[in-house]
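Quick check before the chapter quiz. The format below is the same one you will see on the exam, so make sure you can read both the input and the output lines.
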Amino acid sequence: MCHVNTYMIETLHSRYLDRRTLAGIVHSPSAAVRRQQQFSPVSFLISSSLSGVNCVLLLRVQHFISTAAAQLAAMAIGTRRRLGLAPLSFYLAPATASLLLTLFLHAPPLAGAQPLPWQLCDDPAGNYTEGGAYQANIRALASGIPKNASSSPALFAKGAAGRAPDAVYALALCRGDTASANASSSCASCVAAAFRNAQQLCAYSRIATMYDDPCILRYSDREDFLANVTDNGGKMLAWNANNVSADVAPAFDAASGRLVNATADYAAADPRRRFGTGELDGFDETYPKIYSLAQCTPDMTAAECRACLGDMIGRFTPRYFVGKPGGRVFGVRCNFRFETYSFFSGRPLLQLPGALPPAPAPAAAGEGTTRRGAGPVLAITLPIAAAALLLIATCVCFWKRRKHTERKASVPYSTNQDDIQSIDSLLLDLSTLRAATDNFAESNKLGEGGFGAVYKGVLSEGEEIAVKRLSQSSRQGTEELKTELVLVANLQHKNLVRLVGVCLEEQEKLLVYEYMPNRSLDTILFDPEKSRDLDWGKRLKIVGGVARGLQYLHEDSQLRIIHRDLKASNVLLDMDFSPKISDFGLAKLFGWDESQAVTSHIAGTGYMAPEYAMRGQYSAKSDAYSFGVLVLEILTGRRNSSFANSEQSVDLLSLVWEHWTRGTVEELVDPSLGGRAPGGPMLLKLVNVGLLCVQDSPADRPAMSAVNVMLSSSTVSLQAPSRPTFCIEEMEGYSDMYSATYPRGSRPTKVQTAMSPNEVSITELEPR
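Here is the expected output.
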């Protein structure tokens, strides 16, 4: 049995406030025709529901309606001109379109029609030209962002391509309830389809937004929309045109509002995906259940997410959703929906009971003796009740104050078991780890670095692990360390080493990681024999994987981690030589301040950005600098710090710059490749990216999302790098994770030479 639900739809945009329009829904091939379709009196979308699943029937007739409306408008204009009548086209066209939609509503449903996507095309922003740089940059983003979004645990990605005035900035968000078994494929396919649809439905528009059930996409020529999380873009909303019966409508509105707000609270508190689903059970026989969903982009804070959702709920629910059994609002940064049928995957993350029981009706007044007896009863019970309430309130306040004092230094995070593991699930017994590592035997030591020694271990069931024994220099208490470790354990990306457990017994602080058979990159890259195993394809895989892992830490994770110690020894390789970044988050766990970070742990690795080495200032751009050094090391097979003690005192960056300016970068390629490295554009691109990342000014270095676009696209034009400020530092005895154990003894002397020639100002450079 198929019943028809009429859904109203409204398009809200900064320039079209309070104008109801089909322009964002009905596609036409030109902006001029789109403007003709902005019908003020009509703004509705027809939806049919078969077995509780909505399917909008507009798409099959959108071309027919738009064409007919345009033709009738033209006929009206011609008639007016011949007869000298007042202009009727503005009224005739929408009325005709309304009639056509009404006739279509009574026609049989069209099987297979799809309700979404909906698009918003920002024509006043201007158009781009076919085959131009702007279109090429859109396609470059379309080749990378779907994969980045699907590989992110947050199902979220941002990116940029090209240079102004043709730079394109994009954001993609997949719905958080995508089943884990096919999250990658369904998310990637939805975002890829959104890019295709945007270029068709918003042909040549420089700004386009696509709203679909599985994903949201927006691209623009305005960079600020990526950083401005309060810019919620053009909004679209739809509501079920049916009405809840008048006698239960107030109670239904209260129940659905309570559920939507509770779901918004849940989504805002979710640090991983800013996503929540809810169910209210047992409303009444007609609507036994109410379902809801809320989501924000994961780069928003909890407060920003809740404010975004609260603004939309507060503005649109009273105006559009009163007495309605379903409704939804799409925004670029946040969205919510409620229905009387289940529309999301999996079990609801939040469950609420049905409507609260009504207050008992006041008892009818009895005889005079009853009324006279009520006075003494109240005189006795009211003081007792008041005293009890006062006692309870005092206890609650005291308890809250005590809890606040105990946890005043910690940050409140969601404890949702679906998103954040409890510390109990991560804890391992010290006896188990001692047995696995043969009591931390020297023969099992894989390496030693600033954070502590690393040991290989084998659990009783045969699983191989790597155990990092943190040094006692950690200044954090056990409880705070537990909180941070739980959060770090939930940073999950295919290019990050997975933390599988912790042990905090007998003053020990042990972190248990997955074991990487090929150990760390430096043990292979800088070994004349082993480096032959790193062919050109493996090196490209390592560069791309590290870039994606850093983008996740900087932009896509809930913690926004700055690594601060990225280097070859902190890049581990699995059996297939896929890279995994290690030691992320440990700088945060150790609570370093800037001076300690510079002087006692990271100094001397040769990967430090100038502003970090000299002033203790670090940011995502200092990680980008370290990445640039790493890229150049992977290409050349040489350590940046290995030049410090040479007679020429020329470091790797100056050597690469010299060959770059001469156009002889082929001479830099690692000799162990034996001529197997391709020259030409790919080699130039990698050197260019590396030099862009090591520029002196942090503002000039690209973000890691931009680096990923550069690496994945063959059409993006790269800027010419400026000459870097070379800083040589050498400190022996420091390596991390799986690096070879170095001799230990007295602390070596640090040698630092700063070279900042920069005599030449280069604005444009094309290597030969």
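If your answer matched, good. The mean pLDDT is 72.
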